[in-house]
Amino acid sequence: MTIPNGSPDLNSFTTDFFESCPNRQSVVDGYCVKCGPGNFFNSSTLICEDCPVGTYQDQDDQTSCTPCPQGSTTQTVASPSSSDCKGEI
């Protein structure tokens, strides 16, 4: 872009750059990746998020987490296996 008879004010000049990935992938360190176990793709925020306590996800590329069976929960977020569901104390 050329500004006739002038120059841009570099102190107030901004640009917006958004990396985009194919459906259900998130940008991690500049690469498009599928969400892995213990995570799910949030279609509202367009990022991979940890499964909350009380849920797990044992597969890649999912859009939700699976609740633990009634009476059990996980101890932490991002549980990648149903075996992380333990009886509540």
TrEMBL record:
It comes from the Eukaryota. Residues 67-89 are annotated as: Disordered. Residues 38-85 form the Tyrosine-protein kinase ephrin type A/B receptor-like domain. Transmembrane segments: none annotated. InterPro entries: Growth_fac_rcpt_cys_sf, Tyr-kin_ephrin_A/B_rcpt-like. SMART domains: Ephrin_rec_like. This is Tyrosine-protein kinase ephrin type A/B receptor-like domain-containing protein.
